[in-house]
Amino acid sequence: MEDGIRIVFKNKNTVIINKPVGMPSQPDPSGDDDAMSKTSKLLASLGESSDLWLVHRLDRAVGGLIVFARNKKSAAALSETVKNGKMEKQYFAVCHGSAGEGEYRDFLFKDNATSKAYIVKTERRGAKEAILNARKIDEQSGMSLMSVELITGRFHQIRAQFSARGNSLVGDKKYGSRDTERRTPALFSYYLSFMLFGKRIIAKARPDINEYPWNIFTEDKYSIEGDMQS
């Protein structure tokens, strides 16, 4: 482990880590420690090649699984997988209220001035279709624990789509949460699955269930069927 970075899976082509909340995925203007640099340093400490390529991102405020490519060939293949929507990504989310299940389909517009995504009623210039599937795992204390499968990967998609339905993620003040106990959105990337060079790679993780608001729900609610495969 390197300052909160934990390797979940690695082979000669990829490395999948569990990124801490509050850490950017790659170097940014803040100059803060980032997941890509930390992972590279960790691989070097293991005597391995430290070269990495970014193929997708997690918001700084979101923790969980992120994959880096370890050579140009796998970077090209994974970038194409992401572009074509062939990387399966699932998240745990805790939101306010009793959230609805099923498909959420909206048009999302990103406002660069506010760095925020907005739902628009009809397709317009700059708006992109956003689709996810939501499943309710449990409901306790006026909050819902959800499993969310991203079909498209838009800016702040989960946060904006839940907020638009009156179910802001706990701690997500940017999208309407008034919770005073958490400072970041209760959102965690717990599952990644993709094909690479004819083999399926599956990685799984779970949030710190001793941390609020994850601790509102019992440990068994975070069980993920099956074992990690490669």
| Major sheet | 11 strands, mixed
Q: What is the ordering of alpha helices and beta strands?
A: EEHEEHEEEEEHEE
Number of domains: 2
Q: How many strand elements?
A: 11
CATH H-level superfamily title of the largest domain? Pseudouridine synthase
By CATH, the architecture of the largest domain is named 2-Layer Sandwich
Strand % is 35-45%
CATH level 3 topology of the largest domain: Pseudouridine synthase
Shape by Cα distribution: globular
Tell me the distance between the termini.
21 Å
Number of helices: 3
Radius of gyration computed on alpha carbons: 17 Å
Helices and strands in order:
Elements: E1 6-10, E2 14-19, H1 35-45, E3 53-54, E4 63-69, H2 72-83, E5 88-96, E6 102-111, E7 116-120, E8 127-140, E9 143-150, H3 157-164, E10 187-196, E11 199-204
Parallel strand pairs: 4-10
Antiparallel strand pairs: 1-2, 2-4, 3-4, 5-9, 5-10, 6-7, 6-8, 8-9, 10-11
Structure at a glance:
The chain is mainly beta and 230 residues long. 13% of the residues lie in helices and 36% in strands.
Structural write-up:
The protein is built from three helices and eleven strands, in the order ββαββαβββββαββ. It is mostly beta strands and 230 residues long. The protein has two domains: 1-84, Pseudouridine synthase, CATH 3.30.2350.10; 88-190 and 207-230, Pseudouridine synthase. A hairpin with a 4-residue loop joins β6 and β7. It is globular and about 50 Å long.
Jot down its keywords.
about 230 residues, mainly beta, Pseudouridine synthase, 2 domains, 3 helices, about 15% helix
